[in-house]
Amino acid sequence: MTEVHGRTLLTVRGEIDLDSAGILDQAAADCLADTPKGVDVDLAGVGFFDCAGLNALLRARALARATGAELNVTAVSSAVARVLDLTHCREAFSLPARPAPAADTVPWRAARPA
User: Residue 40: how many CA atoms within 13 Å on its side-chain side?
Assistant: First the structure.
């Protein structure tokens, strides 16, 4: 955790799953208690992120709103982006939309049995 301009930067690395989501809950709550202006969360170093991680992030967002603070997600890994995109939660954290695939990209299709 680093404080910059009255806001705390919470940098998260590793895995956020059912076993570790409580750590994110506690870290976000501590940061919000110590920094009333808000918290910026950097999730670029997260290699695994599941629904427990998403729920922890949503709880942190709700806590921030309840206390009049802001919680911004400033960076995400591909694992986090995938969950946010699949659940349509990207907009909840003010992340820019992912760019559309290049025109020459072929979408993945399951192989059909012959």
Answer: 13
